[in-house]
Task: structure prediction
Amino acid sequence: MLVAVEPEAEPGIESFEALYRSSCSDLHAYVRTLLGDSASAEDVTALAFERAYRRRASFDARRGSPRAWLFGIARNAALDELRRRRAAPALAPEPVAPGEDPSDAAVRRATVRRALEQLGARDRELIALKFHAGLSNAELARVLGTSESNAGTRLHRAVSRLRRACTDTTEEDRP
Amino acid sequence: MTLRRRPRPLDPAARAELAAIDAALAGRPVAPEHSALATLVADVRATAPSPSPELDSRLEAGLRSGFAPAGAPAPRGRVATLGAAVRARLGAGISRRSLALGTAGALASVLIAAVVIVSLPGSGSRNATQPQTQLLERAAPGASTPPPAAAPATGTPAPARPTPSPLRPLPPGVAPAPTRRVDRAASLALSTAPDSLNTVADGVVRVTDSFGGIVASSNVSSGRPATDAGPGQGGEASFDLRVPSDRLAAALAALSRLADVTARDQSTQDITAPYDAAASRVGRLTSQRDALRSRLAAAHGAQVQALLARLRAVQAQLALAQRQQRQLDLRARYARVTVQIAATGTRHGAAGPWGPGRALDDALRVLAVAAGVALVALAALVPLAALGLAGWLAGRRLLRRRRERALGFA
Result:
């Protein structure tokens, strides 16, 4: 059973626990997509929540939604992890078990997964923030530190590249 | 310099696709031409990795414990520690390093302020000798050198050398020397608190000046005021003054009001006879010189050289006699006053037991010192804070750039 964590001590966020419940999976998916491996993604996710909890008093609702604030913290933690990796050997993308589901949907999803791996980190991040985290364009802009129109433009380019990558992957798989 | 390319506004088709993505994410129906996009949204969402049960339990545990670091006790209640309270009050975004830097900066500023205040002149908290010799520049031509000042009290490391101080002419209103010429001298011993020594010393100079006198020499040795740590070390000061004789009584009265008088002596010496003798000698030598000049005007040959030799001798004697007469005249016109000030550790005007009045004085003094420390600390802290802010902003910018670069390499 969970105990509510000092809701009255969080002036900026009504309930950190509520934010956690609504964002945990999406945050992990975003970090996982950005980093490419699950072990680091879990560590960074936990670190992001820890940092967010400690800094919860500094949240300012005028500067964006709690979700955008949380994803901004996670993004910084993930980018720090990527910086650390530059000095260490790069991790290979985790293989996806082929043929888990013979259905068309499963095939499509495998294609999408491979297409995502072919994208650059910046595009992957945009896709994850939009599709996994479900952020609005304004929240995207807040997380990325850019304008809303710029975020929209970048997102559209990333989606276009993903669609091209899906098409290319499909054609490669075709016998 | 890097020019940031401004993105072009989205064309309507792109805007429609983004709207379709938002609709698909929200579970709303999309237009038929965007059905492929809606499928892509669903597929991408379906590929979203789920957190493992281990991560779930780790985060749940963290949520319960307030995400306390490993090994640290979980916070209980609202705020467990003072540090947590401070961090919560100032903003949890403040890191421990920032807090430590801020605390170190504040301590450094207070230290700087304390050092500056202690080193300020007149603080009374050091033990040093300060020769303060006042020279009056409006000198009377050919005025004599006053006699050396009395030796300062025991304990003064380096007594000030009596400074030749030519006396200025009598100020307007000062009566000429009377027929009877009297050499007057006085000595005054004052006692004051160590922290008032400089104030009393300044008062001596001020009183002397107001009566048309001069400070021939002075020596101020500051002491250390009494503290909780131990008794204060008394400083001392000595002054050798020249005061117009006809104002001596008033000047002594004014000087006596500066501090507690512990001793006062006065002496007089009639110097009429020596003065008259010197005047008579001057008159006689003047007559001789005039006669020699007359004879020299009418002399011829070898007589001229002899008269010139005699004239030089008489002129030398005349100069000496005139100097002696002038000295005696100045001794009659100006009285010598020696002032000794001893800092005894008791507050001036506050003899007796410690009471509300002295408590108020102490409180005001503490407040004044605290305000001074705060002011100097502020002066030291403002540039430090500006530097720290600039460094912090630069650090943030650098970190942001590094993170973005890491994204580009990934």
